[in-house]
Every structure is written in structure tokens, then in C-alpha cells.
């Protein structure tokens, strides 16, 4: 997937128009249109502004290695956990997430 496709995909996932993204990022709408069409590649500072407006990292626009988290509040919590120092508190949070995911999968399996 290209940078152009990723910008368009993230924008569409947020149900955001090009005009809204232009206003939120401060990037000229004509430039934004060229970026989405793949006719031009944004400079690093412009890419960062677009990424910030979309609520993703610049890496997410550059590579396919990123996981898309549509729930912004959840994404912020994951970022906070990721930024925590390694230790018992972080291990406890990860363990709790593992247990909650396991329980949700079990409920789904038995509901089917």
C-alpha cells in the first residue's frame, strides 16, 4: 500500500472529508488531493501534520506494519501503557488484558 492509499484509508475510516483533513492538519487542500492521488509525496513536516490530524503516527502512513486502532480513547490508553516503564504494574495491566480477551473469546464461543 502506498502513502497516498494510507492517507486516504485513514481519512475515510474516520469519515473525514478532504476539506476537514485540510483544516485540521493545516495542509492546503490542493496539496492534500495530490498526496492522496499519489501525484506528490508530502515533506516530513507535512506528513507529521497529516498523521497528527488523523490520530496516527507518521510511521503508520509510511509502512504497512502498523495496527489500525479505530477507537481513539483505546489507542491513547495503549500508548500510555506502551510508554510505562517495564515493571510489575505494566505486567499486571498486560495480564489483565490477556484475561479479559480470553474471557470475551470464551463467551463468544459459547454464545454461538
Written account of the structure:
With 112 residues, the protein is mainly α. It has 2 domains: 3-62, 434 Repressor (Amino-terminal Domain); 72-111. Helices cover 71% and strands 0% of the residues. The protein contains 7 helices and no strands. It has helices at residues 3-13, 18-25, 29-37, 44-54, 58-62, 72-83, 88-111. Helix 2 packs across helix 4. The protein is elongated, with a radius of gyration of 18 Å.
Largest sheet geometry: none
CATH topology of the largest domain: 434 Repressor (Amino-terminal Domain)
What structural class should be given to the helix and strand makeup?
A: mainly alpha
Ranges where pLDDT stays below 50 over 5 or more residues in a row are none
State the end-to-end CA separation.
35 Å
Spell out the CATH superfamily of the largest domain: lambda repressor-like DNA-binding domains
SS summary, helix count: 7
Condensed summary:
With 112 residues, the protein is mainly α. The chain has seven helices and no strands.
Give the topology.
Layout: H1 3-13, H2 18-25, H3 29-37, H4 44-54, H5 58-62, H6 72-83, H7 88-111
Task: Provide keyphrases for this structure.
112 residues; 434 Repressor (Amino-terminal Domain); 2 domains
